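For the sake of transparency, this paper describes our internal protein records without simplification. The record that follows is passed on verbatim for readers who wish to inspect the format:
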Amino acid sequence: MNENGTKVKNYPSNYEAEKSLLCCMMIDGEVMSSVFDANPNIFFNERNRNIFNAAVALYADNKEVKLLTLYDYLERNKKSDVDILDYLTEINNYEPGGSNYKEPLEILKRDMLLRRVISTCNEVLEDAYFSLDAEATIATATRKITEIDKDADKATLEHISKSGDEFLKRLNERMINPKGTSGFKTHFRRFDHITNGLQKSDLIILAARPSVGKTSFAWNIVSNHIKHGDLANVVAVFSLEMPGVQLVQRVFSTLSDIEMGHLSGGTINQAGGNAEDNLWAIQRKLEKTNIFIDGSSKQTPQSINAKCAKLKAQKGRIDLVIIDYLQLMDLDKRDSRQNESTAVQVGKMSKSLKILARELDCPVIALSQMSRGIEGRDDKIPKLSDLRDSGAIEQDADIVMFLSREDEAEKSHAFYNVILDIAKHRNGSLAEVRFKWEGSRVKFEESDNQTIVRSFNKEKRK
């Protein structure tokens, strides 16, 4: 309390725990192997933080962490003060002993996180006072708090055998069920066999020329997901081009086999069968799913990250994120620079989406435009160099796949073949899969006949 009876607010810290941990490091050489990679900011006291950094530097140089070596290091690096030797002596004689390092370490980690929460909340308050964009402020606040939570369980160096053990467990599962799929199933049988499902942490780029069907293909994955009853999986779809109601209309058409024209025109009585009953049955299925749509036309990687983090906190998981499409996103003002080229901006966004996939531990499908160069070619077969605006997209992606018509002359037909070309596959093989496309029902189906016959010569992919 101060003289007015008001409780004084101090940053969370524990000076005694700081000295206790430093003592443990000085008197027990084994402790350093457990604490050397800790964040130096667990020490609120600057003098103690300097001593910790000195100990880490000595340990990294294979030198003993003792009173005299610490004193020598601090002196040589001008990090000492007048009575530093007396202070080191005090720490060296501090109780408890080295075997009790875990308790003070946990106390210091807790207090550091609480200090970060306080600082972050202060930053959010300052932003809120002057912000003109409430949604951006909320997204920033969510992202910053989420980052603190991630740091609480920050990964560190692990022995290679741990990753080896995880790999062998996965391999054993595949051996037990060789026809199974370890990743997120699209329920396109051949495609799932090639990719083993969409893998966690993967960024998947789906690109095509306008009107070839990249949005429809992505939504066919969602429709397949519903059709096969994968209701527990959590899917987040961000549509920057079309509102949710238009997209869901496609799902109803694909699942009910009612033509889009009947749904748009309200003439489902002409569709035959129990059309209306079928639509209500689909709606009851939708109610049981964990599929969420954001139809906001303005999105940044940061806002998508914040919304996904919130959804994951609510549901405990996210299994798939779809973004339609990459070039319609904006950069957060903090990440944007004046006179920056579109290629640089798109590169920043693709990198952010790869980080998003890693942080959410789920596959992210990002739809992408093609460059205009393909329009000047006769074959119209996409190449990696056709990705619009940035070679960084290809670099960041784990899978790059293109959709193109097998025969461009058939694009006005009700039915024609579309080729899905897996042009980059970081952890698997390249392949082409032939699909049958039915425009009136916005439906893709893998063709039984996988013999691809282009109406022109296929150029070598760059």
The first helix runs from residue 15 to 27. DSSP finds 16 helices and nine strands in the chain. Residues 457-462 have pLDDT under 50 and may be disordered. The first strand starts at residue 203 and ends at 208.
